[in-house]
């Protein structure tokens, strides 16, 4: 890894005390320094070179076997552009206070720990203190969720950050005008400058493509010390472009993204982080596929995703995702429902712009080709769908891959689907040819427990509120026979 030309300070050998040229009380901030190093994507060797100390000394600091002195605090703040007041805050008193509060829980009633013992744990074993606090926090959240379920209050939402994040995006119909407008103007600026790499260079950031051993498992890493953006060199062209765009979103549009997150109250910090990540991805899509240009191209090309991917240098999934965001008043696109699942049916991404009924919990309908495309990797499967209430939709589904790029790098295969209401299907090249009758629709349900199609042979369980008939003398083709009422 390249480092700045700043003169190196004398390295401190293993076992040597830290310099004491400041009279301030040294601090033991091992866990915090370790978290910082991991967030920055640095090895102990790289951090040691940046700070002018030895790697063994970094290891001693992280294990709280050496203090972090005022001089080292200054070096950290200068090297990584950090707020020194936040970095220097002593965690010991905070750990002791939180441990004391935790030990007031009735579950610890039989345990008698003095304030001196609690302080000793917080000071000498901060890692143990953090582990205890995490376990107790998880215990409390599970207890609250269980209590809520027993009382019928839907307590599972208390600890459902993914659900909170999806609700945030859904209530805004996955459209954020401020991000689109800012991204559109920035995309023009980047194009005039000569592309992403040249634009970053003018911001003082060097773009480098590095091998996996340097990236340490990261696809993208911003080295704040050396002002360089590092990208995994094994990524495909569209993946590289996407990761660069995400970095630009996090930096150039930080104010706009932060304002949207601050404007909402989230039950957990994780929910806020998930929303922040979703907004950065939204912005990256808007940078690579500016609203007006992309919307016109989508309409002109009949929403042919492969064609659009070639025009904008994006992947199939990136284009499909962007199609769900075209909600600008007066210039709306087709309202799409987007979903991504793995082979086990786990949902990892979902956006609803068309009112498509989808079960938030439980398995989806196996008759939907979304769950069948794994048998035909890379092929687009169109399908007309009809819900039990008569609503008709048009769907396309296809597998997408992520990962890979090397012999020992695993590939993850998922399925994505785009769904629109039947009245919009004629705008898609995948639907029936003009003038030809639409093929029969596949009757599907939201999920077996909410579907009353008695004749369905693919059913896995009976619907709620329906009694099944005995089969002592008669067995029907469907898994269950239902009573009339």
Characterize the structure shown:
This protein has 485 residues and is of the alpha+beta class. Among the domains are: 66 residues, no CATH class; 154 residues, Arc Repressor Mutant, subunit A (Orthogonal Bundle), CATH 1.10.10.2910; 101 residues, Beta-Lactamase (2-Layer Sandwich), CATH 3.30.450. Helix content is 41%, strand content 12%. It contains 18 helices and 9 strands. The chain has a 6-stranded mixed sheet. It has a 3-stranded mixed sheet with strand order 1-3-2. α2 crosses α3, α13 packs across α15 and α17 packs across α18. The radius of gyration is 28 Å and the shape is globular. The N terminus is likely disordered. One of its GO terms (cellular component) is cytosol. Pfam families: HTH_3, Peptidase_M78, ScfRs. This is XRE family transcriptional regulator. Belongs to the short-chain fatty acyl-CoA assimilation regulator (ScfR) family. Keywords: DNA-binding, Transcription, Transcription regulation.
Tell me the layout of helices and strands.
Blueprint: H1 30-40, H2 44-51, H3 55-62, H4 70-80, H5 84-88, H6 91-102, H7 115-124, H8 126-150, H9 161-171, H10 177-193, H11 196-202, E1 206-210, H12 212-215, E2 220-223, E3 228-232, H13 237-252, H14 254-262, H15 269-288, H16 291-300, H17 305-312, H18 316-323, E4 337-341, E5 347-352, E6 381-386, E7 392-403, E8 411-421, E9 442-443
Parallel strand pairs: 1-3, 6-9
Antiparallel strand pairs: 2-3, 4-5, 4-8, 6-7, 7-8
Helix pairs in contact: 2-3, 6-7, 6-8, 9-15, 10-15, 13-15, 17-18
Keywords: DNA-binding, Transcription, Transcription regulation
Organism: Novosphingobium nitrogenifigens DSM 19370
Biased composition (Basic and acidic residues): 1-23
